[in-house]
Amino acid sequence: MDIKIVESNAELEQAYHVRTTVFVEEQKVPPEMELDQFDETAIHLVGTKNGVPIAAARLRFVDTYGKLERICVLDTERGKSYGKLMIQRMELEIKNNDYNKAKLNAQTHAEAFYERLGYETVSGEFMDAGIPHVTMVKEL
Q1: Burial of 41 (0-12, 13-18, 19+ CB in 10 A)
Q2: Which of 47, 78, 93, 104 is positioned for an S-S bond with 68, CB 3.0–4.6 A?
């Protein structure tokens, strides 16, 4: 999988397509909650395989950390370590911007995945878009 930081409207549309497929169509998140005001200023990433978008994520810098958000891989491509590659690329971008802490809100079913990547749960369970989440952090 090739991962790149979005630099054009076409690449942004690719990222939005993956996010809409995973979050809106598959997980039934309302579209107005999935695409929000933070998209305008966030760093977006898109992962492609043979030129076809299969993964997406966005990154924002908040206070003293990089916040990993909207991390998703199409269902047909899961289980191939593409999510791990996306996280690693986002962590590199955080370090390249002189931050040393990453934070994310993980869907609880993915908590063990993030733990294997070194993230630690720092909150109780909470609901976001009708899906249970926990906040997790990692020192980079």
Answers
A1: exposed
A2: 104
Residue-wise pLDDT tens digits, 71-116: 999 999 999 999 999 999 999 999 999 999 999 999 999 999 999 9
CA proximity to 140, closest of 123, 122, 119, 121: 119
C-alpha closest to that of 70 among 117, 122, 12: 12
Q: Which two tokens stand for residue 42?
A: 């966030």
- For the chain, strand residue ranges (E) read 2-5, 43-49, 52-62, 65-73, 101-107, 120-121, 126-128, 131-139
Q: Tell me the per-residue pLDDT of 15-51, one tens digit each, with 9 for 90 and over.
A: 999 999 999 999 999 888 888 999 999 999 999 999 9
Contacts for 56 with CB less than 8 Å, ≥ 6 apart: 14, 15, 16, 18, 19, 44, 45, 46, 47, 70, 71, 72
Q: By C-alpha distance, which of 94, 9, 17 is closest to 48?
A: 17
Q: Are 101 and 64 contacting, i.e. CB atoms less than 8 angstroms apart?
A: yes
